[in-house]
Amino acid sequence: MAAFVLRSAPALLLSGMALASCVAASTTPRTGARASTPPGPALPMSPSACPPRDTMVRLDGVARQGGVLRGQLLRGGVALSLDGRAVPLTADRAFVIAFDRDAPATATLGVTLERGCGAFDVPLSVAPANWDIQSVNASITGGVSSAEFQARRAPELESIAAARARMTPGSSEGWRQAFVWPVVARISGRFGSQRIYRGTPGSYHSGVDLAAPAGTIYVAPADGVVILAASTPYTLEGNLLLIDHGMGLNSAFLHSQRLLVKAGEVVRRGQPIGMVGATGRATGPHLHWGMKWQDARIDPITLVDAADPPR
Ligand SMILES: [Zn+2]
Question: Which pTM does this prediction carry?
């Protein structure tokens, strides 16, 4: 991780984080109008006016495929982007970013400074993940979906998109928390796993499956706001529940037998929110927990305490 300088910064740590990495060694100026800005950690010509760049972004952890990074812009930073897309900031300039299961090996954080002090880019290396990919000697199943399926599916997808559009960065502080497992159960399916059928890749598994008996109560893994609680089962997801944890981070819970919350409700970490079931396309009772940050699909396991396994 040549782009990082790892250092202890106890006074600046977010809660629960052991190490903070301050971006330092390899900042690059934006091309275009500000291309003449000197690169790297050198102070601007008027040091009293502009903040130093070398410690402007603090990241807690390492960028990796399917993973989440929390961080902080220090005083003097006013805007942040990831690969050109705006990243919401809290009033104290904290943020969360995440990397899709198939994120490329590099990403770019764009930092804008206050008072006309310019903007600069911070390259990030995104560590590859070792997804469970298996080749099987079988034909891919599923195939072309029927017109009847499409007719049912279209409004379902619309309602999911509408629910996600209702997410707001400041809806919840849940994104700052250490997540808990929604249910204590055996992991029967891992995020990112995929089968290749005689050379044709099937779609990868978009969440973690927890094999609990039907009727088992599951809880909110972190604080949030319910943005969708299906009143009738969806074709694939069954009784779908979507929770906005704030700052673009959200959870989806699939196949529930019953939901215990309604759209618009505020939920707290550990609060019962549903009962495990097998509604929708499920071969048996289990809880499928999927997570997204904006459009990036992420592995929920990266957000829960590794020392607290669900079995
Ligand atoms: Zn699943």
Answer: 0.84
